[in-house]
Amino acid sequence: MSDPLLNVEGLTTVYRVGGREFAALNDVSLTCQAGERLGVVGESGSGKSVLALSLLNIIRAPGRITAGRVVFADQDILHLRRRELRRVRGGGMSLIFQDAAASLTPVYPVGVQLGEIIRTHLSVTRAEAARQSVQLLGQVGIPEPERRLRAFPSELSGGMKQRVAIAMALASEPSLLIADDPTSAVDVTIQAQILELLRHLVDERQLALIYISHDFRVVSTICERLLILYAGGIVEQGDAPSVFNAPRHPYTDALLACSPSVEEYRFPFATLPGNPPNPRDDPIVGCQFHPRCPRALDVCARETPHEESPTAGHSYRCWSPLDAPGRGSSAAASAP
Amino acid sequence: MRTAAVLSALRRDPALAISAGLVVIFVIIAVFGPWIAPQDPNQINPGSNYLPPSGDFWFGTDRSGRDLFSRLIVGTRMALLGAFAVVVIDVGLGTVYGLIAGYIGGRVDNIMMRIGDILLSFPALIMGVLFVAIFGPGLIPVVVGLALVYMPTAARVVRSQARIQTKEQYVEAGRLLGYSPLRIALRHVLPNCLSQIIVQASIVLAYAVVDLAALSFLGLGVQPPTPDWGNMLAEAQKSMLLAPWLAIFPALAIIILVLAWNVFGARLRYHLDPTERR
Amino acid sequence: MSAPDIHVSVKELRMLFPVKRGLRDRVLGVKQWVHAVDGVSLDLHRGECLALVGESGSGKTTLANCIAGSLVPVAGEIWLDDVMLARAGALTGPSARERARLVQVIFQDPTSALNRRLRVGSVLAEPFLVHKICNRAEATARVEALLARVGLPPETAEHYSHELNASQRQRVVIARALALEPRVLIADEPIAKLDVSMQGQILNLIDQLRRELDLSVIFITHDLSVVRQIATRVAVLYLGQLMELQETEAFFGSEGHPYSQALLRSTPRLRVTAEDGELHTIKGEIPSPIDVPPGCPFLSRCPEGDDDCGRTRPPLQARSAGGLVACFKRAAADLAATDGAATGSHG
């Protein structure tokens, strides 16, 4: 296997909250190959958005990256000069934001904004940029792309805006696309269309995709490999079917049990008691999940678990993992 | 918790600390001026007229030999008192006006804001002159005139914030719970406009200091012999070349006060408005 | 099957909004209307949880706002038991205060629904004080009882809303809605802004409250996986029109309206297989509700529609398996299957 497109080792991002330091991202290591669709699942506060920003090295105060390496296409992202970094941010890696409207300027037509990106990154003529804009809008499934070039963002529906945002992310011809919950504000029908579109684009262009979401269902629909983030750390990762059908970490199991399902009646819902660690409280020693964990042992409160990988393509960090075989819908999370 | 936040903001933000310090000093001078001043501001010293700054008269003396330093200190009271009065009337009226327009919205809002625009189209000084023409010279007519001219600006700030708040779901929740419009406006919308109102007040105060001084300079505001920065400047004008300190020190006082308030207002806005910080 | 106990009845409800016009339209005198709710008749049974389902722009929130009394319908009637709540152009019957004790709303965004300048205790005490149910001292005890009801500790009263997490905030919003002991609760996408891990808690709570307090609940959502868990019946709206009305079990078990099926197929599954789980999408987006075409509103996106569907609007018809559907294709299929037994039109 060739070198991965993205290789992250021990990435740690720290924020100052209320006078003390808090690791929003703690010792995160991951890889992503070209053509691969990697899903990152986590609750709010798990550090999933910080991960997206850290990969692009756009963490702003009060946060800073304190440790780790991000190697993307043989470039050390955390030690690039500003100018090179700019090229990587818009070119090699593109970010699709949760809120599409926020990534579009309301005062310029879509075509102008798209053209600007194309000309910045590919140094082509205005006419060529316009031609490529039309092509891009067509590729992301916008009907009548010529006409839409002149449309202002406010004239587009939420789904259309998200498509334009995707077109903008593609305009610089990236090799890695990072999508931070891009469907959380749209209807299920549009969500399905956008997921389908992303999958299609990844296949067609051999892109790598990192799809970040709080919704297990969405991530598992589109991603081949899953990574579960809790309190800034990866608690489990592996091939989607393996993680999904036989989760080893109690948190993954609880998250699955909590998710509403269209296939089966599972009322009342299992719930996950407690809250994720609060940055304002004292840091938790040992496994970050242990105060909420139904399987916690004494050791969990003392030592941080190591990464275990009994089977290829599936690893977890837990002192008290679930059994390997069988399906994951065990009673790890307590029913009310 | 609140005081701790204020203290930490003061520590981290030197601009806020310095401007707040100056503001506090000015307020102390305004309150205790007559006791601080080394001499009686109206004490005429024949034979020591037009003296340049010296150990006896720190900022020099004027035509009648009165101590400029003492006059400046005592004049602070008029400058601030007038400006505060303008702010209280302006922000008070503007808040009520803006809250009504913003909360009701629609056509009422439109009409009220257009009336505001008309008021706004009067230059502040002209309005001051107009009120003096009607009610005679003095601090009160000038203050009322200025407050009326500034009022639409305050109203507009409150109104736009009230518009934003009215779209929040807690307002709809209040309606559905059967709360009266007055209750929703005063207990729910108004407190959420407070930070904007405070900021507006600090901005208007700086404007008011300048405009009040300008009207006094024209002889319309505070009447001599009561010491006031504006009428001191007016007198200084006659002897600009002979005794430039008479113009320089009152002008400096106005500049420092206005600057301090402006910076204070800007920093206050930064700290009170969470969206500004991101 | 015994006759259902009808709690709220919506009759031929119509809600239009004027379109914001440019200068040209004003000069030409063109007046356009958004047909947000376009002739919907619907009953809410006592003690049930009726899910209103549809994409944004389907009119589900407008319909709910009419029932809550936030909007005055242009045509039609709304009845609660034997009291008329609204008719064309006017709210009728109870005053705003009386209405507050009948119908309450749980909002989508708990952050926006709570005044961040007030402590939770003041937020929850206010309904009691405004309605003069008790004095300030007694209100404290009532607030505690409310907090307990929604599973929050009494200390919560001392906190400001921004000190709580999203799930706790939504519990406070629910508690406030319950303060006046309403009979009907409208939940407007109450979990859309919550993490999946917290959604279940809120759904459990709403369901538990419905059973314990015998509430009739209207649950608005576009997520069918939520519908399956919480609803007893499902109403599907599209472009302000009712497409299908069905018992939840039957809705997920039978071949419903093509639009319902499209929604169902678009909903992400909680299942993963080694090969790519294909997502079935429907084409296009919900069209503008300004010029609604004469025929079936769903025709432009329907995989089964033909020319006949574009001529007249399909009526809501009772299905042989129960429920109502507004689709010529389904009606024809039912007819063929049951030799024309059950095709009485409705509404």
Describe the structure.
The complex is a heterotrimer of chains A (336), B (278) and C (347). With 336 residues, chain A is of the alpha/beta class. Chain A has 10 helices and 12 strands. Chain A has 2 domains: 6-92 and 176-317, Rossmann fold; 100-171, no CATH class. Chain A has helices at residues 48-55, 82-92, 110-122, 126-139, 145-148, 158-171, 188-205, 216-222, 240-245, 250-258; strands spanning 6-17, 20-32, 37-41, 63-72, 75-76, 93-96, 176-180, 208-213, 225-230, 233-239, 307-311, 314-317. In chain A, β4 (63-72) and β5 (75-76) form a beta hairpin. The model of chain A is unreliable at 326-336 (pLDDT under 50). Chain B is mainly alpha-helical and 278 residues long. Chain B is 77% helix and 0% strand. Chain B has 11 helices and no strands. With 347 residues, chain C is α/β, with parallel strands linked by helices. In chain C, α8 (196-213) links the parallel β8 and β9. Classes of the chains: A alpha/beta (336), B mainly alpha (278), C alpha/beta (347). The interface between A and C is large, with 48 and 44 residues.
Question: Characteristics of this structure?
Answer:
heterotrimer, A: 336 residues, alpha/beta, Rossmann fold, 2 domains, 8-stranded mixed β-sheet, 10 helices, disordered C terminus, C: 347 residues, 5-stranded antiparallel β-sheet, 13 strands, 32% helix, 22% strand, globular
